[in-house]
Design brief:
28 strands; Thrombin, subunit H; single chain; six-stranded antiparallel β-barrel; Pdz3 Domain; N-terminal domain of MutM-like DNA repair proteins; 3 domains; alpha+beta; flat; 487 residues; 9 helices
Amino acid sequence: MRYGFASLFCLVAAVLAEPRSFEPAKSLVRINTTSQLPNYEIPWNPGRVSQGLGSGFIIEGNRVMTNAHVVSNSRFLTVEREGDPEKYMAQVEHIAHDCDLAVLKVEDARFFTDTEAVRFGGIPEVESIVAVYGYPIGGDRLSVTRGIVSRVDFQEYTHSGADLHLVIQIDAAINPGNSGGPVLQDGKVVGVAFQGYSGDVAQNTGYMIPTPVIHRFLKDIEDGNYDHYRDLAVATFPLQNPAMRRAFGLENDRRGILVTTVFARGASDGHLQAGDVLLSIDGLPIASDGFVIFDGQRLEMAEAVERKFHGDSVTLSVFRNKKPMEVTIPLDKPWPSRMDAHAYGVQPRFVLFGGLLFQPLSRDFLKETGINDLRVMYYFDHYTRDQMYLRHEDVVILSEILPDPINTYLTDFRFKILESVNGKVIGNLRDAAEAFTADAPQYVLRFIGEGRPLVLEKADVEAARERIRKRYNVVSEQRLSENEGEK
């Protein structure tokens, strides 16, 4: 890592000026995780057990904060302190997969002897110096690296793969084991280290979760539950083109963005309309590129909603049909679909019938099975944008065929989307399970985009049931609910 003279001077000055009253070693925690990943290819089997390592730090109330991805799918957790050889058992108290944060509790009070809860700071200035603490690459001793704040941004959190929040980029690498560790400036935590790039993508580039996200998470769980982030559930388009602005009757004041879609079942459904122009949110002017000035930072409009909680509301100044109006939107509805987000702490849902394995489409299902069928990918990519969730609570896929005499010559139906069974339209996995228990001499399965049906005789299915279970060690023929949830 190389610095110019000015940056080097700032680095030295920051080191000399850093308060010595706060000792990071008294707050830093090493987290050992034993986790079990779900098996989407053989969903009735328990998944692979693996071990992992992460970092954390002690916060007020004798709690440990870390990343959600450090403790997701965990079966056994232990924590250690610098200089203490003992491992202490821990449990996940609260976890937020949408913002990659978690709080652990440690029952043994001895763990907190001679420890110190961290203090939180604000958003660090660009070009200022921060220090990243943790246990990277499986190390047993505390590690510290320093870097410069490169930018404040709004980016995807890779843990969920679907949520975008405020992030801070630093030029210090975030390596495995650093995750969950504190990022300090002037003796205060200004972020949580959580993701970075591999060396073949970018060098010395890491990201931390800033304190506004941390404070929101801690505030949300004060009542004992995590209620998740709120969202307006609209798609917007910048209004920077002069001709478009004139068409909507807007002044040339560089304000306003266009609502292109209002997602059904979302917070804005019934309040906003496609074609509305949003001019301000809670009194904050919205620039024509969708940014607002929030806490002295120029941030995306979504940040104004992200600071809200379940039950709060936002007030928007709207230009509708060339007339100004105000709209108040209660934030009492979740984002209408989470298919495109990774799921944790749950088991795969499935139905096995006549050796045919049916599973609902999801990001994890695609990742683990490697399916790249064009129609399946279309349904995944457009599921929310085209509001397919109104017709398909689940997109039910024939994911595998366990070969047996009753299902020979049916391999061409693999990876197809189930449309109906005996004329009953399939809207979710439970519909399929119920259709397969109906009293009928045969089952006629139709798939989207396929002119030919798949037909199974009921008598053949019943005769083959135990044979298939025994041959493939099937311990359960269906799981219709995600039977292991996390708070």
